[in-house]
Design goal:
single chain, 217 residues, alpha+beta, 6 helices
């Protein structure tokens, strides 16, 4: 198995049967009071190196810009979760063979895992807040996908493509900024790995790149 920075590994023991269970808001609210919710968020990029962000209008985090995503469902891999959420939020369909990590022939790469505590939530009692663990993935949208996506969604008022430097310098949630920094570092590391496999690149050049990378971490 190839090493991939930030990419989640999925393991299954025995035969797990997936269940489709919907909780009404009052039961879901009680669940949020006792459990940490697992989420999948997706940093979508284009060929310009920009990120697609949506301005949320619901708790948690209303009026903040954030990538598309949502909670995982029991039995899903992070990549299956991301694919379902892309269909729900942007009407984009991911092929079954692409619902994997890039190292396994899929289209997704891992960015990082982050822990959140929110003061408020959308379910009553809203002041009880919610605790989340987020697995952030990334994939690049093709021009065809960018043209066909439908970002109409009741959770967001608008979507924009934004440059990483503008996000890092702007008034954005610190978790988003951290995921952008981690994305850029992972991208740099992939460049170093490619150089290490290229016989035309000297060991000294690779060593210098690794040193520069380490200083930025």
């Amino acid at each position: 198995m190839a090493f991939s920075t930030g990419s989640p590994l999925h393991f299954e023991t025995g035969k797990y049967e997936r269940k489709s269970v919907f909780l009404p808001d009052d039961e879901y609210g009680r669940a949020l009071d006792t459990l940490v919710k697992a989420c999948t968020d997706i940093l979508l990029t284009n060929d310009k190196g920009e990120f697609l962000l949506g301005k949320r209008v619901v708790e948690p985090q209303p009026d903040w810009w954030y990538p598309c995503g949502g909670r995982m469902k029991p039995g899903e891999t992070p990549y299956e979760s991301a694919s379902r959420l892309l269909k729900r939020e942007l009407k984009l369909v991911v092929k079954d063979e692409d619902k994997r990590n890039k190292s396994e022939g899929g289209r997704f790469s891992g960015v990082g895992h982050y822990s959140y505590l929110w003061q408020f939530r959308n379910q009553e009692p809203k002041g009880n807040g919610t605790a989340d663990i987020s697995c952030v993935l990334t994939t690049k949208l093709s021009r065809e996908e960018q043209d066909s996506m439908d970002a109409t969604n009741e959770e967001y008022s608008e979507h924009k493509w934004m440059k990483p430097d503008d996000i890092l310098a702007g008034d954005f949630h610190p978790a988003l900024k951290q995921s952008i920094r981690d994305f850029l570092l992972a991208d740099e590391w992939e460049t170093i790995l490619k150089a290490a496999k290229d016989d035309s690149v000297s060991d000294q050049t690779i060593a210098n790149k690794v040193r520069q990378f380490a200083l930025r971490c």
